[in-house]
Amino acid sequence: MNSISNIWNHPKTSAAGLLIAIVTIAGVLSQQNITLGAAGSGTVVTLIGAVATALLGLFAKDPSGDTAATDTAAKLGAWALIALLLPFASGCSGTSVAQDIVSWTPTLQSAVATVNATGALLDPAAAPIFIAATAGFDAASNLLVARAKTYLAKPTTTVLAQLQAQVVVLQQQVSASLLSLARIANPSSQQSAIGAVNGVATIVSAILALVQSVSSKAAVAQMSAHATIKLASVQPFLDKRKSAATIAAHYGEPVQLAQIQVEQLVLTESHLGF
C-alpha cells in the first residue's frame, strides 16, 4: 500500500522513474540489436527511447515556484542528459555524431600536448620509458582529428570505415602505453605518467563510443577484433574520477552523473569485446 500511495502522492517522480526505466531498457535492447521493427530511418526501439528522453526533458522544464519542484526538475534534467548520452543512441544521425566527435578534438589535442610536456617532468629513469610509450600519440591523434573532420564534411561509409579504424589504432596505442608505464619504478613519476595518459584515454574512449553508435554490428565486431589489448587489462590504470570530471566539463553536467556514464561506458565496451 505504501508503494501505491507514494505513486499517487508523487506522480511526477513516479512517471520520471518509469521513463528512466524505459530509456534504460531501450538502451539494452539496442545494444543487443533488438529493433522491434523500423520507424522511419531508425528503429522502434530508438524511437521509444527518444520519446521517453523528450518527455524527461519536458518534465525538467516544467516551471514552478516551489523549491522542491525546482530541485526535482533539475534532477530530471540531469537524468535527461544521461539518457541522451547512453550508448543506445544508434539512431543518431552520422552528422550529429560527427559534430560531437569533432567537438572533442580540441580537448584531445590539448591532452596530447600535456603528454608531450610530461616527459620532461619525470625522473631520468622514467623519462625514456614514457617517451617510448607515447611516441605515436601525435601522429595517431592528428590523423583521428583529420578523419573526424572529413566524416563531418562527408559522412560516407568509406570515410566512416577510416574513422573506425583510426580510433581503434589510437585506443590501442593508449592501452599499450598504460601497460608500459606500469614498469616505471618511481611512484611519483609513475603516477604523473599514467595520469597524463589517462587524459587521452578518456577522450579516445568517448570518441570510440560515438563512432560505435553509428556503426553496424559487423563493423563494431571488426573494430573489437583489432582491439587486441582489452579493457580488462588496463582497468587498474584507469582513473574513473578523472574521466568523469572530463566528461562532465565537456557536456556541462554534474560530475555524479558523468560517473554513472563512465561506468556504463566500461560495461558497454566490455560487452562489445573491447
Word description of this protein:
This protein is mainly alpha-helical and 274 residues long. It has helices spanning 2-9, 11-31, 44-60, 67-85, 94-118, 126-133, 137-153, 157-181, 187-213, 217-226, 231-234, 240-251, 255-271; strands at 38-39, 42-43. It has two domains: 2-85; 94-271. It contains 13 helices and two strands; from the N terminus they run ααββααααααααααα. Strands 1-2 form a two-stranded antiparallel ribbon. A hairpin with a 2-residue loop joins strand 1 and strand 2. It is globular.
Total strands: the figure is 2
The low-confidence runs, each spanning 5 or more residues with pLDDT under 50, are: 60-67, 72-91
Into which percent range does the helicity of residues fall? over 70%
Number of domains: 2
Based on helices, strands and strand pairing, what is the structural class? mainly alpha
Estimate the strand proportion. Answer: under 5%
- Main sheet specs: 2 strands, antiparallel
| Rounded radius of gyration (Å) | 21 Å
Mean pLDDT across every amino acid position: 79
Give the helices and strands as they follow along the chain.
HHEEHHHHHHHHHHH
Shape: globular
| Strand numbers in spatial order across the main sheet | 1-2
The total count of helices amounts to: 13
User: What is the first-to-last residue Cα distance?
Assistant: 45 Å
